Amino acid sequence: MNNKIESERDGMKKSINIKNVIVSLVFLIIGIGMLLFVLFVVLPAMTHNAEVCTLEVEAVVIENEPYWTTTGDGESVRRYRQIGEYTVDNKKITLTITDQKTDPVPEGTKITLWVNPDNPYNFINSREINLIDIVVPIAIPIGIMLFGVLGLVFNLKKEK
User: Fold this and answer.
1) Which has the closest alpha carbon to 38: 139, 145, 144, 146?
2) Please, which residues have CB within 8 angstroms of residue 138's CB and are 6 or more apart in sequence?
C-alpha cells in the first residue's frame, strides 16, 4: 500500500506522505479541543471558585495520612495527605486539605483556606489567580497545535 500522493507541478515532482499529514491533523485537532476545554471549562471554574469561596478560615492539620503510590518510573514512594479540621457556623469540618506531599506537615500547623459559605466542604487554598495559572493551561494546547501546524507545513511543502 502506497501512503504517498504524488503530483507534478512546474516540472517538479512533489510527494506527500498521507500518514504524516493525518498525524499532524490529529495533533492540531487535539490541541484545538484542549484549548477550547481550557478556555470554556478550566478558566471559568478557577474564577468561579475564587468568587464563591469568600469565607476565610483557619484549618489545623490534625493528621498526616501516609500512603504508597507509584511514580512514572515504577518506583514506589510514600506520600502524605494532610487531614485538616476547621469550623464554619459552629460546625466542625474534617477533610483532606492537600494531597501528594512528600514530607508530612507537622500536626497542629495552621493553614488559611477560603471556603464557600453556602457549601463549607468546598474550599480553595488561595483566591489569587496568578499569571502562571492562566498561561500554563493555555500554552500546553497551543504547543500541541503548533506541533500539528508545523507537521502540516513541512509535510505539504516537502519536495521529492
Assistant:
1) 139
2) 35, 38, 39
Q: Which DSSP letter does residue 106 get? A: P
Closest CA to 53 of 5, 9, 102, 119: 119
The pLDDT of 133-153, averaged and rounded, is: 93
State mean pLDDT over 48-76.
90
Q: Cβ-count burial of 97 within 10 angstroms (0-12 exposed, 13-18 middle, 19+ buried)?
A: buried
Q: Position of cell 501528594?
A: 100
* Assigned C-alpha cell, 133: 495559572
Average pLDDT over residues 114-127: 90
The answer to whether 97 touches 59, Cβ cutoff 8 Å, is yes
* Three cell numbers, residue 78: 510514600
Nearest to 55 by CA among 85, 86, 81, 82: 86
